[in-house]
Amino acid sequence: MAYRYLGNSGLKISEITYGNWLTHGSQVENDMAEKCVRAALDAGITTFDTADVYANGAAETVLGQALAGERREGLEIFTKVYFPVGERGPNDTGLSRKHISEGIDASLRRLGTDYVDLYQAHRYDHETPLEETIQAFADVVRSGKALYIGVSEWTAEQLREGQRLAREAGFSIISNQPQYSALWRVIEEKVVPTSEELGISQIVWSPIAQGVLTGKYKPGQAPPAGSRATDDKGGDQMIKRYLDDSVLTDVAKLEPIAADLGITMAQLAVAWVLANDNVAAALVGASRPEQISENVKASEVTLDADVLTKIDEALSGSIIRDASLTKSPEKRLV
What we know:
By secondary structure, this protein is of the alpha/beta class. It contains twelve helices and ten strands.
């Protein structure tokens, strides 16, 4: 396992990071979730990412239980705040001082830890003054409840203003967590250049495009039984944008590229996002331990310029680049 610095900070994280969105507390039973976490630890993963909204808090609880007994100093635990949680009252959402203050305490209880290494704004809150949000995060850092602050799916403009206010408040935003894959490249035009300027790294989610880049979905065929495309708890909605026959036909063109390299399609997809110097880590989830064991091998893969060009050519008709697709809800959900 290789490790990278997160943003302009001294924090190193495993470049393959374990994420438990759509798995712990929902798709995967607790005992299997713990086996997946154990497989991640055995593979050298030290960084674990979750959020309070995942399974309405259950994902944090399961992760905390799975990591119990591990040396805390040897782990980097990340969580997030923004989306509605708990009883879903009028203040159980957003990035207000109240919700951030209560949210970090609730997350720490569920995770069973005194602090998180990274506390992230899960989206941008258009209904709370950014100054209030940044000051609340500054208080969380000063209290020792979080060591660093990050964000998720913020636009270039939001990152710039947020970083300005953060530095005035005595800390820095060191990370952004956007969707990014060989198919979904909306951060490349604006977010990545701005982040490089501001000392912010990307921790990217869905590097395998919800599983589509594994090649298991075939044009003209029904999705495999038990796959994310058949999950009615949310997975099917997230993946449906990619289940177009033209996209799946382009993805199939990656098979000989992966075969020539002696790696799987999933490893190719993860190695592709890690080829971007602004990416500190690729988030991978798992419903089975062997998925982790296979995906971490991407940490050993370096893709040369010729291979990157072949990937671009194979997917040219299906790549999404529209920078305007980086956005947060205009209004809170409750």
